Amino acid sequence: MTYDVKCWECGRVVSDPYLDSCPGCGGLLDLEMNLTELNDLTPYDLRKRPIGVWRYAPFLPVDEKNAISIKEGGTPLYNCRSLASVVGLNRIWVKYEGANPTGSFKDRGMTVGVTRALEIGAKVVGCASTGNTSASLAAYAAKAGLDCAVVLPAGNVAAGKLAQAVFFGAKVIAIDGNFDDALRIVRELAAKRHLYLLNSINPYRPEGQKTVAFEIVDQLDFRVPDRIVLPVGNAGNIWSVYKGLAELNRIGWIAKIPKIVGVQASGSMPIVDAFNAGKSDFTPIEKPETVATAIRIGNPVSGKKALKAIYDTKGCAVAVSDGEILDAQKILGRSEGIGVEPASAASVAGMIKLVQTGEIGKDERVVCICTGNVLKDPDIVLKSFGRIKPIHADFESVKKAVVPHER
Ligand code: F0G
Most buried among 120, 215, 233, 256, by the most CB within 10 A? Predict the structure, then answer.
């Protein structure tokens, strides 16, 4: 599809592919798609293709013939009856993004972002990351044959994510700062053309990520849910979901847009603070802290877009404690067999909280997006169980451990 890259704030058209913000006012960039080109397309035309990011190629800003794909998207939308009865709602679905090739939703954005990198002739790609972006970019760069550098906050990236970035051959650079510091530095490297930046401030990333909204609606046979709940870190994904839904609404494929709920950890909640104060911009938090390291971000680069997504859909933002996040992670795992990392469990924790406060009504149809796989952060799971002590390797000892009350 044809499109314009425009400043989201002042509307200026931007043509330099290395810019990540408006050269005039410094605003965020966005892709304005020429949706009238899709006038003759129907949802049923798309269904001739397997579900996944590239089913929605007519909505994407890159040429599918160039696609660097590892078969991303097409993730399950689980109808979670047990979770619903635990939480006290009639209908809950979990969109399980942990089933993507590298185990997180980032693959949707990277298949488009790395394809774009090749189209503009970039040789080196890079990002700052709390872990998943680096794991995903490393894999797609490997597939594309591009050099890749990832800058990470030392000591605050979960083991699974770090292992992936190393494994796929990225140059892994740990800094003694947090994610916000890392992003500031890679943006400067990109501005000086040392790398092509693939954080979600790159407006091509949300174009891939918006397909999660397409899939949710597609999997529900175009009966849109009342709410979509998701975690917010750097705030690219909540914008992507909103953009996808708004596009479907504009071309008349859906009649309403669900309320969008952004969930943050209480030690890292600039968007929730802004929402509670009724503001359209946020104040960064200096030292964000949370067990959900993926969303340990104090200065979300797309924070203003997140607030627009929330206000435009009459949604809300809510904070949850680390304890609530870990409880929700366990509830989801134990009731549905779905394993998610802490940041992803934040969406479930946020939904539980809003049911308790009465904000979400019993009859609402709610979709929680669970962004990453439990295997990303095995340490956090093992920590809550303590040490597993070995016992004697004989039948009686093991039997006693398995069925302690049977003789
Ligand atoms: N969930 C997970 C598992 C994440 O890894 C992230 C972000 C988010 C939610 C929040 O998404 O930033 O679009 O609001 N992870 C980034 C990273 C920051 O570097 O991997 P967001």
Answer: 233
